[in-house]
Amino acid sequence: MRLVVDLNRCQGYAQCAFLAPDVFALHGEESLVYNPQAEEGQRERLARAVAACPVQAILADGLDDVDEEPAEAGQETSHAR
User: Fold this and answer.
1) What is the pTM of this model?
2) Can you give the CATH number for the domain in which 31 is found?
3) What is the CA radius of gyration of the chain?
4) At the top level of its lineage, which domain of life is listed (predicted)?
5) In 10, 12, 44, 76, which residue has its Cα 20 to 30 A from 27's Cα atom?
6) Considering the domain boundaries, does residue 69 fall inside one?
7) What domain count does the chain have?
């Protein structure tokens, strides 16, 4: 999974560091450091960190399907009649 943080937009709120400490960390009081190639096992934590950023400074490729659940067998997925 590839991450990009707009460090010009980041304000150092550190919500990402609290939610995904294996990927994000504060260096000093305001400087964010992160792993741009996060492991697949961090997917759920990363999705929460991206959503929690108050200034939407984090972009992550490959998180689109985190909250999607497969439709149950026999369940209609379309509401068109």
Assistant:
1) 0.73
2) 3.30.70.20
3) 16
4) Bacteria
5) 44
6) no
7) 1
